[in-house]
User: What shape does this take?
Amino acid sequence: MPSGPSLLLSSLNPAAVAAGADIPDAVTIDGVTLSRSDLLGAATSVAERVARAERVAVLARPNLRTVLAVVGSLIAGVTVVPVPPDSGAAELAHILADSGAHAWLGEAPEGAGLPVIPVRLHARSWHTYPEPPARTPAFVLYTSGTTGPPKGVVLTRGAIAAGLDALAEAWDWTSKDTLVHGLPLFHVHGLVLGVLGALRFGSPLVHTGKPTPQAYAEAEGTLYFGVPTVWSRIVEDEAAAKALSGARLLVSGSAPLPVPVFERLRELTGHAPVERYGMSETMITLSTRADGERRPGWVGLPVRGVETRLRDETGAPVPHDGESIGGLQVRGPMLFAGYLGRPEATADSWTEDGWFKTGDVAAIDAEGFHRIVGRESVDLIKSGGFRVGAGEVETALLGHPAVAEAAVVGMPDDDLGQRIVAFVVPRADADTAALPEELIDLVAGQLSVHKRPREVRIVSSLPRNAMGKVQKKVLAAEA
Ligand code: MCA
Ligand code: AMP
Assistant: This one.
């Protein structure tokens, strides 16, 4: 019989729920609500159906079936591969082949070729399962690198529990909170923090389907999660922003929150947002605190169990003086267990003495506050909070017969933080009239909608250095 705090989804402890620890509104998505006991019963019924699989793919649309598929798998100790619902053909084929998922759990995309295990909203089971060991992988989350197709980040149950508990401590997150967000359910932010966090701490969750200002304003929560694009859209809608003044904590993360958005949120809501920093590989490692200073442009202190350091290109220490910048390295109990099937890439991401190299450049001040300055590589773009590799988009563009050369950069964008811009050299005989639109659709259809370039510029050549490498900084400056 599972019990107490060692249970990953503590609020779903069957004995406690049977003894009356129920709530009527454990999870609401897009207006449909399940009580805690209904959620437990329906998810356990999923667990019974999925228990013999090892790894399953879940098409992570923002709906209750996705939550039941994930929770049922976790109850059974089965690993979930969340698949972005807007995945195009090439990305879908890659995720399925690379992850070795045995079946779709719930909805399957057309022609996806694997057996489908149904998820039924109205089925119930009260079977109990032992809590799987902490080292069991909970998720393989696909995330972009600078080159090549996305890699599978393996997150164990133990890492997730440690990561969530550190956030609960920093944010004072308890069952008294109602969590509100409308983020995608295939990343750490929306899925691990935004669903599992609520189920670990017993906070009712309201998922708004999409993270629109109006939906956030109407949700009447206490704890709100958003990426900077969401917050910058909220401050554009004064009435919606003001409706959040009764909340306890507004949390921003996944990309840099522009200082003017921070200030405007404070003006309109009376809340200085809590900023936190993380990665798919590390969960959340830095945050400002519910009971501490919140400084615009800074992401705060290491959360419980995390240590950080800065290193220069030679591996030498960089002083923590608030000004000097260096490569940010982290270690802590919430870090991933490696990239699935890629021992070399995994080894490359760690230093010899056991620190994870984030690839972000940061400064740390004397009080231990962190400021994220940017990425070491221009080839990793953050657009609307989504991580997109320039290389994967370039490969997709080069698949078009009219494209001779392609280079992709992230340009500053008020709404998205960075907007994906593709510079394309067409083949000599190509008709370029409709080429930009065709290429945008090609990327949306092959990779995913959120990886599509917002702009395609047709150019006669790309600036290259003496080694023949495209000079992306020159391109970005020209643009
Ligand atoms: C337009 N659309 C197209 C095309 N053009 N579709 C196909 N082909 C085209 N050529 C349509 C789509 O159908 C879709 O319509 C709509 O455009 C999508 O619009 P878009 O501008 O792409 O986005 P948005 O709807 O404005 O979304 C902004 C957003 C989103 C809501 C902020 O970017 C978002 O959800 N970001 C969150 C990312 C996130 O959670 N990251 C966490 C990872 P329709 O809408 O009708 O379908 S980071 C993480 O996990 C770490 C640990 C951390 O630190 O948190
Ligand atoms: P992902 O793996 O999609 O979660 O992307 C992780 C990357 O997002 C990090 O390496 C950072 O570059 C960026 N990031 C996440 N949170 C923040 C933040 N609060 N401020 C600045 N950058 C952030």
Observations:
- Residues 183-184, 187-190, 211, 227, 229-230, 253-254, 278-280, 384-386, 440-441, 444, 449-450, 452 surround methylmalonyl-coenzyme A (ligand 1) (CB under 6 Å).
- The first strand starts at residue 27 and ends at 29.
- The radius of gyration is 22 Å.
- Residues 181 and 207 are 5 Å apart (CA to CA).
